[in-house]
Amino acid sequence: MGWFLVGVIVLGGVVILEGIKKLRVSQRAHHLRRVSQQIVTEALMNVGVRFPQLQGLQEVDSQKTAVWGSAVMLFEFIFEWREGDAIALPELRRQLTSALASYAKQQQLEGFQGMPVFVISDMWLLEKQLHFDVAYVVNRQTKEYLDDVNRVEH
What we know:
The chain has 154 residues and is an alpha+beta fold. The chain has helices at 2-48, 62-65, 89-107, 140-153; strands at 54-59, 74-81, 118-126, 129-136. Strands 1-2-4-3 form a 4-stranded antiparallel beta sheet, sandwiched between helices. β3 (118-126) and β4 form a beta hairpin. α1 (2-48) packs across α3 (89-107). The model has no long low-confidence stretch (mean pLDDT 80).
């Protein structure tokens, strides 16, 4: 009976320690995600002013993009799209990508394993709003997400 009680106590201690460890990892991931979203938002605010057709940047709740996993640094944004804007989405995507790359260079931000730190992974128009996803490529998980997206698109 004594060994059984010791076993239960040890097992209970291990379960509690693992729970604490998971909580700490979760808190770090949440903090990294919040800081990453602030960096991406600041970058978009800085480059967005160069594009007169884009007005009113809105961040979408990051929980919607967290479905890919808390370590994937992917954030959705919305700009109001003014009627009559003639620029095509592929060209706008190219120009935004270039502006984000310039901003990253100016801020000395580097992506994971030589990748660009900011990657627009998707862009679409919906009800007079331009939606797009920006990956903040600072870890393996985000790079793998982009690799998966590229495999599906090609």
